[in-house]
């Protein structure tokens, strides 16, 4: 990975040529084998870690003038090196850097002609920090940071086909991996299901299996994310959405199929499911299948009407856990039968409400995985349109 970046960034290439032991960890540049003195004057080796701001897939720039470090460097007088700024800090890196434990952050600008300024590139930045931090060790010991150690190659991302710069920038790599073993099923790619797909594609889940039988028509485009091309109209939704997201990530499977109680093999290995259908009898069979296989799931629903002018109604998000799913089902929160005259029903859906319904479902799923805080776990949420309120039902075991 680093060699690829060095081929497109002259400053990184200069670091390699000079002999620095460089590698890339996500959105960080790591420079190992940096000698420094500890408080007893003994020689230690540390590493710099600094942010990479990705301009595109191949070009990077600096985010700021700061660097992280894996120790507390001292001068030959036994005192901490002054004027480095910063202080104690921690940083979560990936499994590609098990030997790098950040303990400090430094904020030290380049001084030129008595004036402080930002660094022009990564080469100037690393060189200046090396002079300041490694200088005392290099003057006392026969040591150098120019080890020409082979760059540690970061394995290709098994999920995303683009560098996940968002996670690194937000310092939440430790939270993003909470989904890495999940195999998610999305049953139904209508309005809400299509937005859930969009959210999940950008989440570090191992695999997404999407199921839908219907074709993609113009009205679908008005309540789903993404572009519309005329060539997509009339094609199966699974084909349309598959073509939209295949360049973004791996682990996507789109199957044109109606899921019912007989589809055991389709859900083999699934760890969580989202049910996004609007037909009661279909939902009932899907519930039977998921509960029989012990797969936890979230069911979404929307009911809008126009009785007195403006639209009114509500949206629902209900979680059926592997332990209490049957009990929640017995509460009758979701329609499991088809009403008389079902084929004449005016099923109103609006894109922003589909998106909000998907947002609530996605937030709930991420709470279950520990990504978001959940103070009082709710197994069902009901959003009321009129007053924009959410009514939660909690503690299913006691209901």
Query: In angstroms, what is the radius of gyration?
Result: 27 Å
Q: Biggest sheet: strands side by side, in what order? A: 12-11-10-13-14-15-16-17
**CATH homologous superfamily placement of the largest domain:** NAD(P)-binding Rossmann-like Domain
Identify the overall geometry: elongated
Number of helices: 12
* Number of spatially distinct domains: 2
First-residue to last-residue Cα separation: 54 Å
The amount of helix comes to: 25-40%
Q: The biggest beta sheet, please?
A: 8 strands, mixed
Class by SSE composition: alpha+beta
The first-level CATH class of the largest domain is given as Alpha Beta
Strand fraction: 15-25%
CATH topology of the largest domain: Rossmann fold
The succession of helices and strands, N to C, reads: HHEEEEEEEEEHHHHEHEHHEEHEEHHEE
Number of strands: 17
Q: Please tell me the overall pLDDT.
A: 90
Q: Uncertain segments of ≥5 residues (pLDDT<50)? A: none
CATH architecture of the largest domain: 3-Layer(aba) Sandwich
